[in-house]
Structures are given as structure tokens and as C-alpha cells.
Amino acid sequence: MRSVLNSERFGSTISQFYDLKMRNDRKNIIVDLTFEFSIKIIEFSESIRSLHKYEMASQIFRSGTSIGANIREAQNAESKADFIHKFKISAKEADEIEYWLELCEKSIFYPSPDKELQKDLKSIILIISKIISSSKKK
Prior knowledge:
Strand content: under 5%
CATH topology: de novo design (two linked rop proteins)
Oligomer: single chain
Structural class: mainly alpha
Number of strands: 0
């Protein structure tokens, strides 16, 4: 019996087999932006956690990283409606993280997020909104 991973069928290494993708993995700006935003959110939430502000750190971590997770999940949506639904969840999470960041900015008890983090979020919100509206028209 021949192995499924033989070199005639999949190339010379097993890693080449695992590099085959089920979906299109070309560059996707919103996936990239939300991933980078998630990294910045992790750093900011950890700075809050180091101040022993665990509840706020957890809220910021969960809502901030959820945006990218839902957008990544939307890339494998089962239907157009599923795609739009996942983007709507991301939009809600973006609104929530905007709220938590505003609280940090206004409160004397928390560090203020840097302006770049807030600027990135505004860009993400605009892109998500455009994707939702243009997806509904198709």
C-alpha cells in the first residue's frame, strides 16, 4: 500500500503537504489590521494588568482581540449571511473596545491608551462598516 504522503503526489517533504490551503490566503488588509491591533491590545491590557486592574485588563483583552478573531472566522463563512453576521459581531466588539479605551482615557485610575491605538481602531471601524454595507448590496 502506498503512503498518502508519498513524494510523487505531494512533493519531497511533508511540510509541502501541510502548506496546501483550503481557502484563498492572499493578502487581506482587514485581517492584517485587526491582527496587528490585537497585538497592541494585548500589550495595553498587560500594562493595565501589571497595575493589578484585572477586570479592566480582561475586558480590554477580550473585546479588543475578538474583533480580529471574528473577522478571521468570517473568512471561512458558510454563506454571505454568515459572513455579514461575523462582521457585525466584529463591529459590536469594536464599539465595546472603543468604550473601554475612552474610560481609560478619562479615568485617573487607568493609563491612557496611545493615540495610535485609537486611530487604528477608528480605521478598523470604518473598514468594517464599509465591508458590511458593500456586502449587503451584492
